[in-house]
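PT: before anyone asks, these are the final sequences, not the draft ones from last week. 1008 residues across everything. Please model them as a single complex and drop the result in this thread when it's through.
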Amino acid sequence: MSTTRTRTPLVRGRVGELMPRRDAEPKVTGAFAYSSDLEAEGMLFAVTVRSPHPHARIAAIDTAAAVATAGVHAVLTHADVPGRKTVGMHRADQPVLVVDVVRYQGEPVVIVAADDLETARRAAVLVVVTYEVLEPVADPERGEVLRDVRIRHGDQSLGADVVVSGSYEVGMQDQAFLGPESGLAIPDGDGGVDLHVATQWLHLDQEQICAALDLPPAKVRVHLAGVGGAFGGREDVSMQIHACLLALRTGRPVKMVYTREESFFGHVHRHPAWMRYEHGATPEGDLVYVRAEILLDGGAYASSSPAVVSNAACFAAGPYRVQRATIDARVVMTNNPPCGAMRGFGAVQVAVAHEAQMDLLAAALGIDPVDLRVRNALKTGDRMITGQVIDGPAPVRELLEGLRAMPLPLERGSLRADLRELPGGVANTTHGEGVRRGVGYAIGFKNMGFAEGFDDYSTARVRVSLVNGEPLVEVHTAACEVGQGLVTVLEQIARTELGFEHVVVLPADTTVGSAGSSSASRQTWMTGGAVKAACEAVRERLHELAADRSVEETVEHHHRPTFPLDPETGQGDAQVALCFAAHRAVCDVDTDLGLVRVVEIATTQDVGRIMNPAQCEGQIQGGIAQGLGLALMEEIKTENGLVRNPNFTDYLIPTILDMPPVRLAISETPHPDAPYGLNGVGEPPTIASTPAIAAALRAATGRPVTRVPVRPDDLI
Amino acid sequence: MSTFCRPTTLADALAALAEPGSRVLAGGTDLSGLIDRGLASPTTVIDVQDAGLDRIERCGAGVRIGATATLATVAVSDLLTRWTALREAAAAAASPLLRNVATVGGNLCQHTRCWYYRGVEWTCWLGGGDTCFAQIGEHERHGLQPGDCISAHPSDLAPALIVSDATVVVASATGIREQPVAALYRRPDVDDRSLLTLGPDEVITHVVLPAPPDASVYLREGQREAFSFPLVGLAVARFGERLVMAAAGVANIPHLLDPDDVLHDLPGNPQSAWKRTVLATLASRGRTAVTM
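LR: through. Structure below.
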């Protein structure tokens, strides 16, 4: 096949096509280099000394014995941080290394670099930190309020004839990415450093490293290394600054890889939530009001808590029309593990509550739960509880109707069942005795992109040159491939816009402008939009292309402006766009043993435009697995500030045997503001899948199921 | 700092084990975690994987299983087809990767998963301290017996071997003894917190199964479909009219049950009492399975 210099529809691998991802084969064969696989000549290994206490004052740090250990090259404390001593996404409140007061268990106090890992670990044990242990604030009711978001929408005096109320809890979920925090910092010999790291936002890392190291951006180049999952947990810095500090101090490359246990202390988690809800409706089933009090435990530092609590408030009522909303959401600071961004970002917790409430209300009204949701479904032109008029697609009704029309899985036959299809699986717990089936529906929504006035953008540089007479397209961005398949989609976009076969997506680094974070379901919209725009600019100049002359354009893509919420009423056009997904869970429950078999998850999701069918489905399947994990098993357990299960033996995530088949119907309602009409895909699957499972469990057992994850003893 | 040796004969292993502070390593799936958590700090680690203890062979009407035979081999061994509960228990434990290295002896000797015992933040009663933190903390996955330690024993194999009337062969530099599997365990007391009757210089070399039961089954409630420890694991065997039942996850050592009153002696602790329903249900279903 020959390539051509003119655009042709015959080039394969364009937007919308099932193009295999480039990293698939190396990842499944083990050839892919994750950030923990990097090596450099003469590199040192670094480890972190962490506080065993969730709250303590440091009286003294004695590093003498560690420094004196043969093979140790540096032992650093807060005193060795040359620039700003603190970091943080929204506010720089977290010490790079503890200065005086420890605020959560596992907080980094000292870092050590040595010739090999074993020497570094042994030296770390020799560091003597004298703590004055303080009583931790572990009860979020006693926490200091970091931000509260009030929403007062509609006539606050409105009451209703039919009222239902309930209290709900969501446990602290972990991102549980398989690639622990890791990276390699290489000093350039001229006072600068190159950091190769698994992260979500290269420029935010760079900014914080520069502040701590007191270096200009040109001296700190951050390169994306292979990312083994992120899900929000890599937005805050972990080892980035530490590795750079040690590399600059020693003049040697420094590698830092957290252990699995450290990883549980090395990143923020999903906020645990306590929620009290009251819904009021007319006897016909029209929602009149939603009242909610929402408490999130933000843990020791701010991280992205201010934005998470805003999301929890804005989406607290679910994708429904409601005349009056009275929402009080607050996030507090305690000495529990810091919480921040995780897939779904505040919308996950409230969906557990608002969907349970809709089912309660349906029961009180004697209306089918799906009918009730359809009756109150938000649609284009309606106002959210923030007063924002939805001008983009809001296919809530269509998703619900589509979901309801999907066939249900077959009932278990009278023949002896395959054990693998029963609760408990091959462990012989049942051959059908005690098993009851339940079906539950739920729908959720959240925002694409950042909110409340943040001027979000991404940057793309696209260059076309002739190589042996054939056009080569090079796409350069700082956007992080975190497993979602972005690199493949960017390649498809460039091929679509320019019509050339040979497209290379260059490694992401900070030598091109910021791409923003690979989070908030925004990266394909934002960086895809930037690449599309850069390609369009290049296309206009293709006539300049010659053997000795390439064409290059760098373009920033901004989305439309958003605005802050009014602090008194929570009203404001805070969101860029909305994404929706509905889920139906069919669960078999052994009601004598409390064991659950999720038989099937069916889902309808509107993605605006399918950019790559396999990747789109993969995102949805993965998001549902994470939602299933929250429903049934995933929870970080803390006790007086101490984490009890920082390992994959006690923190359980679903295996493939726990994951049911997913029945998928993806719809494409083009979003008028987005490139190709696309919309965010990654987060919506994680929002309503959890409450759908909870609803199915209620249907099967008659138990209230007001807390996730649901334990066997909740179902007996 | 530990030294490491990998003897190629049992005699060499036993000689090494006679040195105070040495510990046996087989698959390493439990010991390495205990060392990481500071719960074990052996002066010498004796890797017995090359000591010739991995064979499964016929032994009269029964079978003799070497202590370093892996769970994966036990689960599929042709010689063990008539010991259904044992094969099912071996197949139910852990994950395929772990079953490929985890051994029969190691599974029997593993320490409890109680997170207070495992956590470096707590020095619990079982670990030599004064307090069973589970009793004042969260213990919904713990045992059903009150006492100084309410942890739950995690071995899937132990109940399956106990109901099969299996014995363990235990060796030291000074001799060999054989005892029922149940006698491998003891309830810890103030003076000795160990759950095992093994001396520090002793190692399990074999497990011996007598003639097989007429029927047996292992039923197991786990927190997920695979790769989890048992919340309750129940082995049931029938020899003619005689039923034998034993359970994991209900007491701090494997627990022999009275088939006519399985909840006897297992009143439950406040948060773990739900397991009584589980145990009673599994017992009823297990009885049906072996008498059908």
